[in-house]
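Hello again, I could really use a second opinion on something today. Take your time with it, there's no hurry, and the full record follows here:

___
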Amino acid sequence: MKTIKFLLPFLLLFSLMACHTAKGIQSTDADNVEITLLQMNDVYEISPSPDQLGGLARVATLRKTLLAKNPNTITVLSGDFISPSVIGTLKYEGKRIRGKQMVETLNTLGLDWVVFGNHEFDYDDQADLQARLDESNFGWLAGNVRLKNADGSQQPFFKNKGGQKVACPDYTVIPLKLADGSTLRLGLFGALINTGRKPWAVYSDYIESAKASFAALKPQADVIVGITHLAIEDDKKLLLAIPELPLIMGGHEHENSRTILGQGVVTKADANAKTVYIHTIRYNKKTKKTTVFSELRRIDGKIQDDPATAAVVAKWEKIKTDALASSGFDASKKVTDLTAPLDCREITIRYQQASVGKMIGDAMIAAGKFSPDCAILNSGSIRVDDILSGSLYEIDIVRMLPFGGGITEVEMRGTLLRKTLETGWANKGSGGYLQWSKIRYDEAAKKWFINEIALDDKKTYKVILPDFLLSGNEQNMSFLKTNPGATPNSTDNPEIPVMHKPVASDKTDLRNDIRLALIGFLRK
């Protein structure tokens, strides 16, 4: 089971903002019109979590309930859904799934608009993202990101529809027909964080982009709101930069929050649709005044599954089970019983040394063949973002480490090991922050210890680490890039003279998959 904290599951929150209020104009309730916005963010799983919270089939039911009350209901997702997930890492019909299950489920749910998040840029091949764009029935707000072409030119991201390229806009205007026959024009704009670095994605300043979108929307829309995937401090800066903005529906942080700054508010729901926000926008046609009422809604078993969405979820869950079985994982097989809760939340593992990091590091060392002195891994490889307790099953290990991948033993110069550890320490708050085993840092003395002996720059250490780190693609760690050399076990990196990789065909070598190494370690 997993635990989650909610501020107040059914708390009705509200914020008030006056836009272009005409002084002295008297209005009545008949002048007020309402629209509804249903907000999700950071959704990686289509099914409820083991604690039975979340589930997109339940969100689909809630959406239908809201639409029945108010046909002018818009459903948005504030970034991060293409990756990561267990299903996304698996193969189906000869190809990596890579978010296909999310798009099909969200299409069935009836999602209207998303903004790109950093995890939409997880995959090296831009064709994977393009395929998801083309499959989607919902709109994508590009905001401050552009597609970089091979010749260096830039263009908006786009969908291929009916033989035409349809650009993903920075902003949009949605005309909503009201019961009295009038039309309310809702303006939406997007903005996103620039950490999803890929050579084919180029970012501009998010504040300048948002200000330009807001200025363009102002003469076209009655109500303007933002959909962002930014760190909360950046959302605050955006509210300060556009003080007229009444609402930002944000993402990126995985825990629900509501932040008021001036006359605006930023809301973020819990990841994986464990909660959603329901915003009621009340607009007075006479005074031009906008009022925002926001309710945090818990998504649990009290909400029935929407049959159509549930059928799509069931389809992909079967694909997941079958694919895991073919890869040697039994989703329902118990691995161990935890003696204490295991905190895998990003807010923990990306800021401090955590029990789960040491556990995985210990498992890597146990899987080693050449007596490693220590183990390091990037915290971004741990994706479950929750607190695990009770029994751990193989599916929990796969959810914890969905990317899998091999682990390699190297001989590393002390100078490089120090540089790696210091860079990892400086990466605090990101996936490049390192977890480790048999390493200690004395922050007061600013000294590193390997097996309780001070790190010696002149010594060569045996280090076991994920293959991903040796790709050089982790944040600020390009210096770790290492390829096999001309002779066995040699490399092209002078600071890593020796490298021992597992033989891929040897199914007994747990170094071929970090998940198998962890399962084997926990079962001993």
Summary: The chain has 13 helices and 33 strands.
